Amino acid sequence: MDQVKTALLIQLLHSFVGGVFAVVLPLMMKERNIDIVVMGLVFSALPLIMQFSRMLFATVSDFWGRKPFFAFNGVLCAISSLIYYSAYLPVQFLLGKLVEGSREGAIWAVNRPFLLEKSKGGWKVLVHLRAALYLAFAVGSLLAGFLIVWFLYDGTMVFCALIGGVIFLMSLLLVGGPRMQFEARKALQFLDIRKKTRAFKIFLVLFFMLGLSYGFRGGFIIPMFLDGFGFPTETIGLVIGVQILLAGVFSYAFSRSSRMRQLILLSGLLYSLIFSLVGFQNPLPATGLLIAYGFVEGMAAVGQEGILARVSSKESYGTDIGLMMMGLHIGETLSLALSGILISVWGFAAPFLLTASAYTVFYAVSYIILSD
Prior knowledge:
By secondary structure, the protein is mostly helical. The chain has helices at 3-31, 36-64, 67-86, 90-118, 124-171, 184-191, 198-215, 221-227, 233-254, 260-277, 283-311, 317-346, 349-370.
């Protein structure tokens, strides 16, 4: 089977499970009496664990190849699903998030580098990756509510564990790349930020602001925001699914554009506008704004993937992309941890206003730097 198509199919299954988790886990935790402040702290563990595991896996994969980490991702998918199956206490959900974070780290350490190495399409293959992610995530979100109705929470987690097994088997179809002996000195050279370009260092900071922004509207926040309107699980899954589906469609549509700077600017302006308004709306307009955000996310994805491809070195794709995302996940961890507290004190408008403000820094400076 074509290596690029196999990797994209693995990503589809991975993201499908992610879409199910995105809707099911916050509602599952609420039903099992987990406080929203504790929920924020539990969810904040994922991006940080993902980042540390991703950097480890990415660095090692530059020497040992990408295939083992695709397989490991499938194993961790099954394990995290089974942990959630039996979780009733915050510490049990935290353990699930630690394993889920490692699952995310395993695949994101290797998927972009693998596709850049196997594809001749340049950075646009990364947009196709993002489109595949969005579409599968959307399907998972759309079906999540129905899975809960059909199989309850426990059955839904078993279903996700079975998909993890399929991912493992599919990863065996990948062809392993040339293996090199691991050299600590060379690995440390890849990780040495001092030797990176000026643009790389600037975008490392900007991706921290991006992550800070994402954490204030990510994780459990939108599902719980919609749950606060009294929407059933099927409706929550439908809203999130349609939003992500639009993101996938428009990321693919905009991938043909060469105006990366303009896409970053326009998507940033729309992002800030939507999240400045959504926390103050009644159910119908708030839902409409969240669905419309899918269009904005699709546009923004093109610019973000273009930045990653532009600032990464061919000799160390895995490590460079991992370093670039370090700022993003540290920022996301901080804002997710704060979000539960902010919501409990001031409501959902507070994190939504903060996500709009932080994103303004990212897109404004990115637009200026890319003009160089």
